[in-house]
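Structure in, sequence out. Go:
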């Protein structure tokens, strides 16, 4: 049975409020098993049965829209993908020293070369950007809310994103995907 993590955009922000118990129930109602949530920010881990990875994003986005009444951009990663992200070192120790928390912007698809160039051109001197496969690593100089990085322009270049700290990604990978049979 394949296990995946889904990262949902915009959960518990603004007027959108959902408890982890309600989110688990909504995801379970879609036929996914062993559903667990991590923090109250739209991080869901589940067993997909025999479903193909490509269909999971559509299943979650459509099902959650029907159950919650609003669009929920969803970013699905396999255990192997999540472990690779958690193990990535996109910046040097020197760059990490004195900077803010390393952020991971999950993308819907691997961006084309033109989109990567457009995104990297938006980088500001104080914040560093680096691409992974389907993620953009962001090292802000300080707090994320203080960053001058233009996320709207980034999303125009790359499509929808959702951002998590590297610490959150590492914790999910360690808790649910650390052993080979869980990836």
């Amino acid at each position: 049975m394949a296990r995946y993590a889904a990262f949902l955009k915009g959960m518990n922000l603004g007027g959108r409020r959902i408890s982890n118990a309600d989110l688990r129930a909504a995801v379970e109602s879609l036929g996914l098993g062993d559903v667990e949530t991590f923090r109250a920010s739209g991080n869901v881990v589940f067993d997909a049965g025999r479903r193909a990875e490509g269909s999971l994003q559509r299943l979650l986005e459509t099902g959650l829209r029907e159950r919650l009444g609003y669009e929920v951009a969803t970013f699905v990663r396999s255990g192997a993908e999540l472990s690779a992200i958690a193990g990535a070192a996109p910046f040097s120790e020197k760059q990490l020293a004195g900077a803010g928390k390393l952020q991971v912007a999950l993308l819907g698809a691997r961006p084309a070369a033109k989109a990567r160039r457009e995104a990297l051109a938006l980088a500001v001197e104080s914040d560093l950007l680096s691409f992974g496969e389907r993620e953009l690593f962001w090292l802000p100089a300080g707090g994320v809310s203080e960053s001058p990085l233009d996320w709207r322009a980034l999303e125009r270049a790359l499509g929808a994103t959702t951002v998590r700290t590297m610490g959150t990604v590492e914790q999910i990978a360690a808790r649910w995907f650390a052993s080979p049979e869980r990836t």
